[in-house]
Design a protein that fits this description.
The protein has 234 residues and is α+β, with helices and mostly antiparallel strands. Helices cover 24% and strands 21% of the residues. The chain is built from 6 helices and 10 strands. A hairpin with a 4-residue loop joins β1 and β2. The radius of gyration is 37 Å and the shape is globular.
């Protein structure tokens, strides 16, 4: 009796094992994708070569020059426009963040009595229906009791000051018998005066009015600290 050949059987076994090992490999598979950050579900950032250019830093604003009349006038005109358009959020962005904004109904500044509001209060002034006492009416002496929106209509923007016929930088353009003490009341500050010397020549200047915006210099910009309204007084 002939013995069975063992070599073919062993050869088949070896070939079978090799096929079992190689079968799971997909030789047509696409190249692997970049690893994914599971927390953000986004591909991980590629490593940066030591020779790669560094990102360009953001341009830093130049320090404010306190003697720069152009930047002062630009800030004053922007504030003037914000009030005209009743854009209170934009106006609040100009208000000094710590000192706040002080309002004076007539030309004479009274630091002890004039009311001061924070930027947040200015931003939301339309929602504030509180009646404040702002001072006393000229001639009559009655308390000026108004909400902030009412005060703006009467003692801030009683005219369209974007159309002012005279503009003065650190200079009072028109006045009456009231004490003009703005410079003394705001030491270290500067102001822009938007003035109407007369609305009608027939009134011989008795109908003059003005809006003075007072700014304190900041590190990079002008910060609004005072709004002084002026008009003819008895």
């Amino acid at each position: 009796m002939r013995r069975p050949l063992l070599f073919p059987c062993i050869l088949c076994l070896v070939i079978g094992l090799l096929l079992g090992i190689l079968a799971p490999i997909d030789w047509h598979k696409e190249p692997s994708q970049p690893p994914v950050n599971n927390a953000l579900n986004t591909p991980a950032a590629p490593s940066v070569s030591d020779n790669a250019p560094l990102p360009t830093p953001a341009v830093q604003p130049e320090p404010l020059k306190e003697s720069d009349n152009f930047s002062l006038l630009s800030a004053a005109c922007a504030v003037n426009r914000c009030i005209q358009q009743e854009n209170w959020p934009a106006l609040s962005g100009y208000v000094h963040p710590e000192r706040g904004l002080t309002f004076t109904p007539y030309s004479t500044v009274n630091p002890e009595a004039d009311l001061t509001f924070t930027p947040e209060q200015i931003k939301n002034l339309e929602q504030d229906q509180t009646v404040y006492t702002w001072g006393f009416e000229d001639g009559r002496g009655d308390p000026i009791k108004l909400t902030i929106p009412q005060y703006f209509q009467r003692y801030v923007y009683d005219k369209d000051y974007t159309q002012a016929t005279e503009i003065g930088i650190d200079r009072i353009m028109t006045g009456g018998n009231a004490l003009e003490n703005l410079a003394e009341a705001y030491p270290g500050c500067r102001f822009v005066d938007f003035a109407f010397p007369s609305a009608d020549p027939v009134n011989d200047g008795l109908d003059w009015s003005s809006l003075k915006l007072v700014f304190q210099p900041g590190e990079f910009r002008w910060l609004l600290v005072g709004v002084v309204h002026g008009e003819w007084t008895i």
